[in-house]
Specification:
With 301 residues, this protein is of the alpha/beta class. The chain has twelve helices and eight strands. The protein has an eight-stranded mixed sheet, with helices on both faces. The protein binds NADP nicotinamide-adenine-dinucleotide phosphate.
């Protein structure tokens, strides 16, 4: 499946990158996950210009890992990078523009990463969107899914050829996107039994179509655009982990907890630094693959 997915996103040239080809037949996930060996890694954190992403990048940079602040807004990204360099005293903090909804931006980022970084040991897909207040509609649901699901998938698939043996992919999801938000048994089982990332795409599209057709009530879907997008992202994470199960690459989902950031209108009970703990821990020491984590503890999806 991954081959098909990668071909779709990257084209045949990158699919056949030697680094990706050379990773065949590797051992199953071992205790020796990134960071545990004490070696310096290369990390990319999306949406790292502020909030939880900035603090994940700070933790990684503080431990001496080369850390890329990936942000869609160049000015904000450069400011955040300068702040991070000052806070950590690290020269290994880099900036590169990345809008995960823009295929051109993602391709340019992946090309730069291949040329300048060589490999990406840690990818933290943190960039995300939640509309505030009572905003609800098909266009808004599409935009939420475009960032939280499709953007995360696009960035992941573009950078996966650079993730070597021992790498870690962390998708910052949410407790608001657990399977339990789907009360309808038939719909829930479609999430549970999804086999391919495209099954998740189909489910996401159905959600938007139900809103468009004004048929959400009685369709089995909850009315949370953010919750559905994060459930889709977590399901995608689980499927990707299964797909990569023969490689020594950890792929995990996590919830940072309710954090006071721009997204939460500064109402959370945790700081962004506290929220960054679990994603940064997974980036460096993931004890397993294909799991959902909160407060460094495994949770059901
Ligand atoms: N805060 C919470 O309580 C909470 C709880 C559970 C999960 N989460 C998750 O944690 C992650 C970080 O959230 P946060 O609270 O730190 O939110 P935040 O302060 O609003 O930060 C979100 C980040 O994502 C970036 N972003 C949005 N769309 C993007 C795109 N298309 N391409 C690249 N970057 C993009 C934003 O960039 P701009 O600055 O340019 O907008 C910003 O850097 C999200 O995935 C969120 O869903 C947060």
């Amino acid at each position: 499946m991954l081959g098909v997915v990668l071909r779709g996103v990257l084209g045949a040239t990158q699919l056949c990158a030697p680094r990706y080809r050379s990773r065949r037949a590797q051992a199953t996930l071992s205790a020796a996950m990134p960071g545990t060996a004490g070696s310096k890694k290369v990390a990319v954190v999306t949406g790292a210009n502020k909030g939880i992403g900035w603090d994940v990048a700070r933790i990684l940079a503080e431990q001496g890992h080369t850390t890329v602040v990936a942000a869609r807004n160049e000015e904000l990204g450069r400011e955040a990078t300068a702040k991070l360099q000052k806070a950590t005293g690290s020269q290994g903090v880099l900036f590169h523009q990345l809008d995960i909804t823009d295929p051109v931006s993602v391709e340019a980022f992946a090309k730069w990463a291949a040329q300048e970084l060589g490999e990406v040991n840690i990818l933290v897909n943190n960039a995300g969107l939640a509309f505030k207040g009572n905003v609800f509609g098909a266009a808004e649901a599409q935009q939420t899914l475009d960032i939280n699901l499709f953007g995360t998938r696009r960035a992941t698939e573009a950078l996966l050829p650079l993730v070597p043996n021992g790498g870690s992919v962390v998708n910052v999801c949410s407790m608001a996107g657990k399977l339990s938000i789907i009360k309808d048994k038939a719909l829930r089982s479609r999430f549970e039994n999804a086999k391919h990332a495209d099954d998740v795409t189909a489910l996401a599209n159905e959600f938007v179509d139900a809103i468009k057709a004004d048929k959400l009530a009685g369709s089995g879907w909850p009315s949370s655009m953010y919750g559905v997008s994060k459930l889709c992202e977590a399901t995608y994470t689980r499927l990707l982990a299964e797909e990569l199960s023969t490689l020594n690459i950890a792929v995990n989902a996590c919830c940072p907890g309710y954090c006071a950031t721009d997204m939460s209108s500064w109402k959370g009970y945790k700081t962004s630094a506290q929220g960054a703990d679990t994603p940064a821990w997974l980036a460096l020491e993931a004890p397993a693959t294909g799991k959902f984590w909160s407060e460094r503890k495994e949770q059901p999806f």
